[in-house]
Amino acid sequence: MAEPLIRAASVTRRFGSFTAVDGVSLTVESGEIVGLLGANGAGKTTLIRMILGLLAPSEGDLALFGGEPSRESRARLGYVPQGLGLWDDLTVAENLAFVDEAFGSRVTEVPEALRGSRDSLVGGIGLGRQRQLAFVAAFGHAPELLVLDEPTSGVDPLSRARLWDTIHDSADAGVGVLVTTHYMQEAEQCDRLVLMSQGVAVAEGQLADIVGGTTALAVRTGRWQDAFAALDAAGVLVMLAGTHVRAVDADEARVRAALGGLEADLEAVPATLEEAMVARERASA
Fold it and tell me: Most-buried pick from 52, 87, 132, 267 (CB within 10 A)?
């Protein structure tokens, strides 16, 4: 079998006495989209920086394209960091020219969607267009691997959908993708998921594997605020979908006891990915 594009085996990174990533393993193969999930501070970006060779692991083994991460192997991937990696005081065209010069063997045309902003400073074109530009810069050298750190954060839903069309098209063409996201609808589009909490990988697999062991009860009552407060005070993991109260990983008897005399109808419902993530993070705390 071909070597994975990314292979991390029990990778740990410490900063003094603080462990940011603790024994995490993952792989990314050609043509698959792997979602790296977790709350802020879970260790996702630190893990990505180790994969890119920007940080050395304190322990564990890590390979990029079958070898140690290096300048040469980074030239085979496209990277969109959280901060986008753009220069606000350069124009759209100048940003692309700078990246082209860094790679030395590419000429990236300003795409039609950005031609009206070709000579505008990047700092003034708006976040949605900046995201588009960051993708164009990352794709200009036909990368074999994409590493995308919250690539659609702060972008409107239509622009997010278009960027995800680009991600799927790339995977269909054989490009491997490692992506972090806080949007559950995006996570559901990944082939596999790795859930991190406090530096540890607490779950891995397809969506059904992550959600499968989590249960949920829909609590239907006209006094939803009172129901939420009562369940929360009783230590039940409770979440809201609009004004709909949902009790996660709690049986009916416990929920009834927490509600006291509050009238409510309870119904077992499928747990969502977000509920499963929160339940696993609470269990690992």
Answer: 132
